[in-house]
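Moderator note: this is an archived Q&A kept for reference. The question asked for a predicted structure of one protein chain; the sequence and the answer are reproduced below.
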Amino acid sequence: MMTHNEITIRTAKYRIGDVVHHRVYPFRGVIFDVDPVFDNTEEWLESIPEDVRPSKDQPFYHLLAENDETTYVAYVSEQNLIADETGKPVAHPEAMEFFEAFQDGHYVLSSDHAN
């Protein structure tokens, strides 16, 4: 672990292209970006009820998410994610803009988006 501005930075548990689902809410998605620590607004964080508000000192994931009704982009703390074991791709229309294939339950990042 290393520190950054007195916040401990942990290694991310999940990778870009992993399919995950939310621990509490009924949605799943594919990770397309990872922040080592919280990188959103205080207003966003404070909108989460205090009893379930995640700490900032953990990775946060940007997901192309889906539920039974719609697709959207979600920002989720690591503590609230679980690996998706369905082996199925997500139905988000932007998934193939970031990824070139879905293989063995994981998305392969498009060479256009690889760093």
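Archived answer notes: The longest strand covers residues 28-35.
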